[in-house]
Amino acid sequence: MSLFITFEGVEGSGKTTQIQRLKRYLVRKGIPCKVTREPGGPPISEKIRKILLDPNHKKLTPFSELLLYEAARAQHVIEIIEPLRKKGIVVLCDRFNDATVAYQGYGRKLDQNLIQTLNRLASQGIKPDLTFLLDCPSDIGLKRALQRNRISKNEKEGRFESESIQFHHRVRRGYLEIAKKEPHRVRVIDTRLGEDKVFEKIREMVEKLLVRGSKFRTRS
């Protein structure tokens, strides 16, 4: 069954943990799936990721940042996402178009119409079947992210963690606005419920999506 499921949220919201849990769950059910991420995925996009997340790149302008994200996405869609979907493999993606709206639109205050146009072009019009917005207060998420980077020694990808708390508040507000506009696709989950309860909600929603897809295939 071809499904495209994305995970969104502020820094430190626990996306990576929940994606890996969902992958293990699907694999146990015998459902082929692939985990990927943005920025990243194919080698070219991973190289762009290093540019975007390097904290030493303080002179990177918001507009240049936006174009780099879209370039990485275009390569990602062509090389990984679309081929997997055509094979009927479930794609689990850590961030996608919504992240650009939240971070570059609300966070950087770039023109939303421009972002929507570039998102549509870079993604070839592909939209997720389901998006999980793992929501948590910006200050809590930022503290988690900074602690995670120290433990994993991942400071080379800490450019966004160094932004002001006001920036992160705007990003969170952007995500919640996206969820209000598309409630059928974007499901908000409060991460303060705890890791296990968050995953239980994710599992229940994915199960419903799988059942609906199965019924559709049977009818067709």
The DSSP helix count reads: 8
Strand portion: 5-15%
Amount of helix: 55-70%
What would you report as the Rg, rounded to the nearest angstrom?
17 Å
Q: Could you please describe the fold and organization of this structure?
A:
With 220 residues, this protein is α/β, with parallel strands linked by helices. The chain has a single domain (4-219), classed as Rossmann fold (3-Layer(aba) Sandwich). The protein has eight helices and five strands; from the N terminus they run βαβααβααβααβα. Strands 2-3-1-4-5 form a five-stranded parallel β-sheet, sandwiched between helices. Helix 4 (97-107) packs antiparallel against helix 5. The longest helix has 25 residues, at 62-86.
Quick gist of this model?
The chain has 220 residues and is an alpha/beta fold. Helices cover 59% and strands 12% of the residues. The chain contains eight helices and five strands; from the N terminus they run E-H-E-H-H-E-H-H-E-H-H-E-H.
Helix and strand topology:
Layout (H helix, E strand, L loop, with lengths): L3 E5 L6 H14 L4 E5 L5 H11 L8 H25 L3 E5 L2 H11 L4 H11 L7 E6 L2 H15 L12 H17 L4 E5 L4 H25 L1
Parallel strand pairs: 1-3, 1-4, 2-3, 4-5
